Amino acid sequence: MSRVLVVEDEQHLAEGLRFNLEAEGYQVQLVDTGEAALEKLTAESPAFDVVILDVMLPGIDGFGVVSQMRESGQFVPTLILTARGYPDDVLRGFAAGADDYLAKPFDLSILIARIRGLLRRREWLRAAPAVPAGSPAEPDGSKHVFTFGDKSVHFDLLELHVREQVFPLTLMEANVLRYLIEHEGQRVSRKAMLAKVWGLHEDTDTRAIDNFIVRLRRYIEDDPTRPRHLLTVRGVGYRFVASPAGSG
Length: 248
Prior knowledge:
Layout: E1 3-7, H1 11-23, E2 27-31, H2 34-43, E3 50-54, H3 62-71, E4 78-82, H4 87-96, E5 100-103, H5 108-127, E6 145-148, E7 151-154, E8 159-162, E9 165-168, H6 171-182, E10 188-189, H7 190-198, H8 207-220, E11 230-233, E12 237-240
Parallel strand pairs: 1-2, 1-3, 3-4, 4-5
Antiparallel strand pairs: 6-7, 7-8, 8-9, 10-12, 11-12
């Protein structure tokens, strides 16, 4: 039985969510502040499988909660509830570390579908091929590991291994990296990433994508100020290079 933490300060909405999610077979706990959510995520065992997080909360807001979760090593798939569906708010949530979003008011069936999607996406990352044809693979032939140089992305574990270091990835970070890897050597526009990774088609600010790339470069690049794998294509977007010229 999947465990869901609902962080919502509107009591009638929170209770309605608990009733309906429990009817769908989920085990649900409610909290009404960001501080309580962070405490619950730290203290609870077994861990939660999904967090439903309202953005407008007293005290620490939803953006702050998900940011602190990720900084503290809590990588539970997280869906944020926004009062407005503005792309900039959505991208701000993704930049903080959220994995999906839903704008209020929402249809319950859509929320259920999104929760199932987060759980499926986690399993899909564990099972789906991550190694394009002709790319180096792990010695055991594992298809959910992509290896380049002394680095490897473990999509099944949501981890990036760089020599002796291990960097946890959010689902969205893994999806961004997977998309770039699948288009290895090609120019990928920011607009394409908005549409294919985030599912946003509006004419909106793309700086959140740049923030993701900055974060991934800190993990991947020996010198993030002089990237060799995640290259900027001026005026377009980015290009992933598995084996830079002159490497090894």
